[in-house]
Amino acid sequence: TRLHKEIVDFTEYLWPRQVEHTVRQHVIHRVTKALQFRFPDVDIRCFGSYASGLFLPSSDLDLVLLSRNYMATGYPSYGLSANSLHRVAHTLKAAGIIKPGSLVVIAKARVPIIKFTDYETDLHVDISFENTSGVRAIDTMKRWKAEYPAMIFLTYLLKQYLSMRNLSEVYEGGLGGFAVICLVVGMLKLVPEFASGAVDPRANLGIALMEFLDLYGNKMNTTEVGLDPAKGKFVRKPPPPSRNEKGFNTYKAHLLHVIDPNDPDNDLTRSSHNIVTIQQGFSKAFRDLQMEMERVSKLSFQERKGVSLLKLLVGGDYREMTARRNRLQLACQKIVPKNFFAPNPPPRPPPNPARKLPPLKLPPPQSPPPEPHHPQSNSTPPPTQSSSPTVPPSAKPT
């Protein structure tokens, strides 16, 4: 279908280039070298979207500082005080890694973090301390990528959708990348036609997207149920705590509850307080796509040329993304040594299945899936929609 093909093409456009991979590897190398020179007992590990191979061109680089003492005993040596965070930040400043004016030290958060922009590449970097949860999640994400190929495409699309609306940063109340992955996998397990194998979501990405938007935008009652993505089922939300550690009742019944597949006691979305806005956006996207598909189905073949469905979700000005990639290319040529070794980037999305499967019935009706097709690397940028009131004029997230 048209929507399926657009999702494939859009994923190809966002898929990381070799230069984006090499530059990130070089940043990790420089940060590790600077910190291990000053603090010989630490190791720097990468986690998050880059480690899983599901990062956008604008994605932050997530690193975690782990001390040998913490790995051996579970007791942290760093990040316990604001002073230790500032010592790490000062070390990076002295090494010329932090761009002036970009440093933010968040010492009082549940997970202390240092945020800054790399001086040489303009990449945004987050460093957390003595926390292995993100590292443990890498294997889960890689396993899901192999088990649910459709997850790759939907994750890229949904992350860009949220990023364009400033709803992708957890510390700002948005949905983090791992939470998005959990929602997608949960949907693929919950929809009977997908779970039974009657319909292959990888061959019906348009249908899978509509199911996702409908499930989390219209059907899921977040005040009563949560999601367990590991088991692929909805669960009753745990009873609210009477008081927090400071004696205040901060419980909000409407918040989304997603169980961490690597730690059942951890709620991945407890800080996503903008979930109502996100759900309303999913619901509106579902309705808008339904109406647009119905409208386009009545057009002649000639009239359908140049019509885009995805512009309703991710239409915008992508010139900044192209410029950013060009800047990274120049930076790579200038700062990365020619003998610097960067492992190969993650392979491109798997090709379409070779067999046709009956499409899931979902209004408006869609035609059978397309013939096998592997997206090419020279796909054109996504269409723009400068007049859309729901999409910001620029696709560059903050």
Automatic annotation (TrEMBL):
Any GO molecular function: mRNA binding
Amino acid composition bias (Pro residues), ranges on this chain: 343-353, 360-370, 380-398
Domain Poly(A) RNA polymerase mitochondrial-like central palm: 3-138
Cofactor(s), by name: Mn(2+)
A GO biological process held by the record: RNA 3'-end processing
Matches recorded under InterPro entries: MTPAP-like_central, NT_sf, PAP_assoc, Trf4-like
Domain PAP-associated: 204-266
EC number: 2.7.7.19
Keywords recorded for this protein, A-Z: Magnesium, Metal-binding, Transferase
Region called Disordered, residue ranges: 338-398
GO cellular component, one term: nucleolus
Pfam entry (one): MTPAP-like_central
Signal peptide coordinates: none
Protein family membership: Belongs to the DNA polymerase type-B-like family.
PANTHER family: INACTIVE NON-CANONICAL POLY(A) RNA POLYMERASE PROTEIN TRF4-2-RELATED, POLY(A) RNA POLYMERASE
Protein name per UniProt: polynucleotide adenylyltransferase
Organism: Ascobolus immersus RN42
